[in-house]
Amino acid sequence: GAGVSQSPRYKVAKRGQDVALRCDPISGHVSLFWYQQALGQGPEFLTYFQNEAQLDKSGLPSDRFFAERPEGSVSTLKIQRTQQEDSAVYLCASSTDPTQETQYFGPGTRLLVL
Amino acid sequence: SQQGEEDPQALSIQEGENATMNCSYKTSINNLQWYRQNSGRGLVHLILIRSNEREKHSGRLRVTLDTSKKSSSLLITASRAADTASYFCASATDSWGKLQFGAGTQVVVTP
Hints:
The structure holds 2 protein chains of 2 kinds.
Chain A: E1 5-7, E2 10-13, E3 19-24, E4 31-37, E5 44-50, E6 53-56, E7 65-68, E8 75-79, E9 88-95, E10 104-105, E11 109-113
Parallel strand pairs in A: 2-11
Antiparallel strand pairs in A: 1-3, 3-8, 4-5, 4-9, 5-6, 7-8, 9-10, 9-11
Chain B: E1 4-7, E2 10-14, E3 19-25, E4 31-37, E5 43-50, E6 55-58, E7 61-66, E8 71-76, E9 85-92, E10 99-101, E11 105-110
Parallel strand pairs in B: 2-11
Antiparallel strand pairs in B: 1-3, 3-8, 4-5, 4-9, 6-7, 7-8, 9-10, 9-11
């Protein structure tokens, strides 16, 4: 089937705006991860879902960041009152279940905050 | 903060040559993985090596792991122009499979 998809692919926001980034994981995948990748850096972990349960949100940089996965499939990462330092690529990845180590990444959403 | 460091930061080679990159990490791991990222794209999983393994092969890829030195290396043999990409190591340290990435090595292979 299709891989992980993310939308939008590009987003330009004015500082202070709220944004919502969507991730459609591979169908049936239990585990879903969000990562943030700054320019020239490796991805950094933000949060992890197992089905609809958010089991780890230790990487969210501030309370302006919020993620949900209400039905255990599609996930949304919301950033409130965006700041320039939020500019990055936001990557979503899924895996079949926690015992399967390989993660399948989406193409990412490139966010630019002006 | 990143879990590991990669060396070199950038590597330029000609087609047919081998490319070697190294990765160091800080804490005990369950496994270590290598990913490739083409410009503007998501990451593609290349190979995984578990903490009780020392070497693994997949096609033109060879990965080694030295847990005593907390380091790993990725060797790409007989490189091709299509291997041009950034390569990241990522360590898995908990039961969820959360990955901690290095900063990456940018590899350019010229024809």
